[in-house]
């Protein structure tokens, strides 16, 4: 009887050890996948940050184009001129009735996120989506990567 109990105990210990080892292996796989995802996010965000820095530098160092921007002198001249009197200034305040707002139908506009996901579901590549929506390629790829990781997290 004692031999049977020792064998059963030994068998339970071996099964427990196997189960612990399998769980430890799963945890290590999840940690390595998490680390890879983290590195992918960091790489994507650093490339976006570099693109933004380059664009900011380009915009800071770009000279204003004539006809597109007002010079400081033109702005000062406009501000120094008195505003012309209008017909509304000559009427008494009691005759004034504010204009009634025109009711417009509500228009539903899709966010960039939903448009990117919709176009991706239609089978468009990230470069095509970026061109069509006027977004950066890395921004589109980041949105798609976040969607993919969100789906993977829901599955596991």
From TrEMBL:
Matches recorded under Pfam families: DUF6115
InterPro entries for this protein: DUF6115
Region Disordered, residue ranges: 55-110
Domain of life: Bacteria
Protein's name in the database: Coupling factor for flagellin transcription and translation
């Amino acid at each position: 009887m004692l031999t049977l109990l020792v064998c059963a105990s030994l068998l339970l210990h071996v099964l427990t050890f196997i189960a612990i080892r399998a769980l430890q292996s799963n945890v290590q796989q999840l940690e390595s996948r998490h680390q890879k995802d983290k590195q992918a996010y960091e790489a994507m965000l650093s490339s976006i940050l570099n693109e933004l820095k380059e664009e900011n530098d380009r915009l800071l160092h770009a000279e204003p184009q004539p006809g597109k921007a007002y010079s400081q002198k033109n702005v000062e001249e406009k501000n120094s001129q008195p505003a012309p009197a209008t017909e509304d200034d000559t009427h008494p305040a009691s005759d004034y009735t504010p204009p009634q707002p025109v009711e417009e139908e509500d228009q539903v506009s899709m966010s960039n996120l939903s448009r990117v996901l919709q176009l991706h579901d239609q089978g468009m590549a990230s470069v095509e989506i970026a061109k069509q929506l006027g977004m950066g390629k890395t921004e589109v790829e980041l949105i798609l990567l976040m969607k993919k990781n969100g789906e993977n997290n829901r599955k596991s």
